[in-house]
Write a structure and sequence with these properties.
Blueprint (H helix, E strand, L loop, with lengths): L1 E5 L3 H13 L3 E5 L2 H8 L6 E5 L7 H10 L6 E5 L4 H9 L4 E4 L4 H12 L2 H5 L2 E4 L2 E4 L4 E2 L2 E2 L2 H13 L4 E2 H9 L7 H17 L4 E6 L3 E6 L3
Parallel strand pairs: 1-2, 1-3, 3-4, 4-5
Antiparallel strand pairs: 6-7, 7-8, 8-9, 10-12, 11-12
Helix pairs in contact: 2-3, 7-9
The structure holds calcium ion.
Length: 221
């Protein structure tokens, strides 16, 4: 596997790269945010490892820009500030994993290997659940068009399978910094999605888990 590692502390980077290469992971290294962003856009990496505090541009900014451009390379964020806020921010804008500094390189290797074992999500351009096929590029489900927010919500539900997705998480993820967004937006969009699934004649239902969130279920009847 080949990764991009963006880290400004050279001694740390050297030590980590040495161990990654011993584990058969080839590494391209960038020491500042701008160079990191330039390289991160190349479609050659299996994963990106981004430090948060970097010269010129932060790791969070890199992540935000590439996700907006539709680049889906898995990302592990690193931060010396093992603060919950950083972690939440990183995951909200599309990081796949998070590692607090200092970390053991063996832990980083384990996380990278775990990400590379999730090929179905990253390489295929569709997500499937029972009789539903969601097209990640065209944002359609079984060829029916979805609005942008419906698509984001359905994608989250499909990626979680039968696990419950928390309502707060959906609100933060889909509406993000929109301070005017309210709890009931989620409910409204769930009812839109339910109507669309019904119109498709799908066996899949969106189940409300009271006080928690939503999950997909499939009834055979
Ligand atoms: Ca740093």
């Amino acid at each position: 596997m080949r990764i991009l590692y963006v880290e400004d502390e050279k001694l740390l980077a050297d030590a980590v790269i040495h161990l990654l290469e011993k584990a058969d992971i080839s590494v391209d290294w960038a020491s500042d945010g701008e160079e990191g962003l330039r390289l991160a856009k190349k479609p050659v990496y299996d994963a990106l490892v981004l430090d948060i505090m970097l010269p010129k541009m932060s790791g969070l900014e890199i992540l935000e820009i590439i996700r907006k451009q539709g680049i889906k390379t898995p990302v592990i964020m690193l931060s010396a500030l093992s603060e919950v806020e950083d972690k939440v921010k990183g995951l909200e804008i599309g990081a796949d994993d998070y590692l607090g500094k200092p970390f053991k390189t063996s832990e980083l290797i384990a996380r990278l290997k775990a990400l590379s074992r999730r090929p179905a999500l990253q390489n295929s351009k569709t997500l499937k659940f029972a009789d539903l096929t969601f097209d990640l590029d065209n944002r359609t489900v079984n060829d029916i068009e979805l609005t942008e927010k419906e698509a984001e919500i359905l994608e989250m539900l499909l990626k979680s399978g039968e696990k419950t997705v928390q309502k707060d998480y959906i609100l933060a993820h889909v509406w993000g910094a929109d301070m005017l967004a309210e709890d009931n937006y989620v409910e409204v969009y769930m009812s839109y999605l339910r109507k669309k699934l019904k119109s498709l004649g799908s066996k899949v239902k969106i189940k409300t888990i009271r006080g928690l969130g939503y999950k997909l279920t499939c009834s055979e009847s």
